[in-house]
Amino acid sequence: MVNKINTCVFISGNGSNLKSIIINSRDYNFPINIRLVISNNKNAAGLKIAKKHSIPCKFFSSKNKKLFERNCLFELKKNNIKFLCLAGFMKVLSNNFIKSFGSKIVNIHPSLLPNYKGLNTHKRVLKNKEKYSGCTVHFVTPKLDSGKIILQKKIIIDRNETENSLQKKILRLEHILYPISIISIFR
Ligand code: GAR
Predict the structure, then answer these.
(1) Which residues are known catalytic residues?
(2) Is the CB of 134 under 6 A from ligand 1?
(3) Which helix (H) or strand (E) holds 151?
(4) Rounded CA gap, 176 and 179, in Å?
(5) Cα 108 from Cα 174, distance rounded (Å)
(6) Cα(163)–Cα(186) distance, rounded to whole angstroms?
(7) Distance in angstroms (rounded) separating the CA atoms of residues 62 and 46
(8) CB 112, CB 136: distance < 8 Å
(9) Which ligand 1 atom sits nearest the alpha carbon of residue 135?
(10) Is 8 strand, coil or helix?
(11) Ligand 1, closest atom to CA 107?
(12) Residue 134 CB neighbours (<10 A)
């Protein structure tokens, strides 16, 4: 594939999904190229992953959301970004930001959406003694973890499952689901 889509990834933390997308993007036929990483947490481990792969990265504080979004829009435009992936980015983007960006934005969430939006997903899933959980990639709207679902993967919750084991199990699945979802969007 010659014309890969210029993509930015927003992160807040570890960046394991970022890593998985970067590695997949090296494939000749993968539809996107990661041109920029933006974090709202200056200590995010994901920033080190970006640097290690020689991808330009920026930190902008999101304490002032308007300013954060203005800074991001400036960088997105400057780098000619046409696709945005949220990967463990823990802020809800405003309607104004989504409109101003004007291109596709996708997110990954560690539950079977529309169930268990928001934080502490695994804890709530276990508390409710659910039989299944999973992860979802969806288009982003100004509403938290909402928007059209692109792909979803389901797992069985073991009898002795803990928050930690469930988190690890689902994260491994996310690393497969996110790249497949990106391929499916641009097919
Ligand atoms: C992932 O489990 C992702 O689904 C979740 O944060 C984790 C980030 O891990 N995102 C959300 O909860 C968004 N609502 P990573 O930084 O290692 O990719």
Answers:
(1) 109
(2) no
(3) strand 149-156
(4) 6
(5) 8
(6) 34
(7) 17
(8) yes
(9) 4
(10) strand
(11) 13
(12) 23
**Residue 12 CB–ligand 1 contact under 6 Å:** no
pLDDT at 144: 86
Is the CB of residue 140 less than 8 Å from the CB of residue 102? no
Q: What angle do CA 25, 29, 31 make, to 5 degrees?
A: 60
pLDDT score at 17: 98
Length of the chain: 187
Is any ligand 1 atom within 6 A of the Cβ of residue 147? no
Give distance in angstroms: CA of 18 to centre of ligand 1.
Answer: 10
Give tens-digit pLDDT for 30-83: 999 999 999 999 999 999 999 999 999 999 999 999 999 999 999 999 999 999
Residue spans of the chain under pLDDT 50: none
Q: How far apart are CA 128 and CA 115, in angstroms?
A: 12
Ligand 1 within 6 A of 25 CB? no
Q: Find tokens 């933006």 and name the residue.
A: 38
